Amino acid sequence: MTDSSTTGAPTTGGRGLLNARTFDHITLVVADLEASRAFYVDLIGMEVVPRPDFGFPGFWFQLGTAQIHLNVASEAAGRPGQGDMGAKSPPQGVHFAFSVDDCDMAVVQFRGQGIAIEAGPRSRPDGARQAYVRDPDGYLVEVTSPAPAQI
């Protein structure tokens, strides 16, 4: 039994019935593979990794042990993007995050590439910094960095 009512993290118990080892991947449906490759590889810093020949276009990117799999929008894959989910505060809604050395510098880099900042940069209650942008298909992406060192 776990209790995540206060921290969001299990406080007791094991690793669950399935004993999952790590987060593996998420799949995003995109309109333009090259625009998404530029965002995730050239800007974020993921690495293109080999992808099996599924018979439809796509890319696989890796960072650490996690991957993002891209599939091109089609009748089979569906429409690209996250769409408007009606959130009054998008950071509280569906998103995924990348840990970076310096969130504020990441914001400078995003702005230098003409990417609008959806929210932040701001400090969380624990002092970590966070900011949010949208990728080329509208998926909400967070960048976060540890709390600045206190002098």
Structural overview:
The chain has 151 residues and is of the alpha/beta class. Among the domains are: 25-72, 2,3-Dihydroxybiphenyl 1,2-Dioxygenase, domain 1 (Roll); 90-145, 2,3-Dihydroxybiphenyl 1,2-Dioxygenase, domain 1 (Roll), CATH 3.10.180. 15% of the residues lie in helices and 30% in strands. It is built from two helices and eight strands. The protein has helices spanning 33-44, 103-112; strands spanning 25-30, 47-49, 58-63, 66-72, 96-99, 117-123, 129-134, 140-145. A four-stranded mixed β-sheet has the order 1-4-3-2, with helices on one face. Strands 5-8-7-6 form a four-stranded mixed β-sheet, with helices on one face. The longest helix has 12 residues, at 33-44. The protein is globular, with a radius of gyration of 17 Å.
Task: Compile the SSE list and pairings.
Elements: E1 25-30, H1 33-44, E2 47-49, E3 58-63, E4 66-72, E5 96-99, H2 103-112, E6 117-123, E7 129-134, E8 140-145
Q: Identify the quaternary structure here.
A: single chain
Please tally the helical runs, counting DSSP H or I stretches of 4 or more residues.
2
- Gyration radius, in Å: 17 Å
Order of helices and strands: EHEEEEHEEE
Q: Name the CATH class of the domain at 90-145.
A: Alpha Beta
Head-to-tail CA distance between termini? 41 Å
CATH superfamily of the domain at 90-145: 2,3-Dihydroxybiphenyl 1,2-Dioxygenase, domain 1
CATH architecture of the domain at 90-145: Roll
Mean pLDDT over the residues: 89
Largest sheet, if any?
4 strands, mixed
Helix content: 10-25%
Tell me the CATH topology of the domain at 90-145: 2,3-Dihydroxybiphenyl 1,2-Dioxygenase, domain 1
Strand content bin:
25-35%
Strand order of the largest sheet: 1-4-3-2
Task: Output the structural class.
Answer: alpha/beta
Find the count of extended strands (DSSP E, 2+ residues).
8
Low-pLDDT stretches are 1-7
Tell me, briefly, the overall form: globular
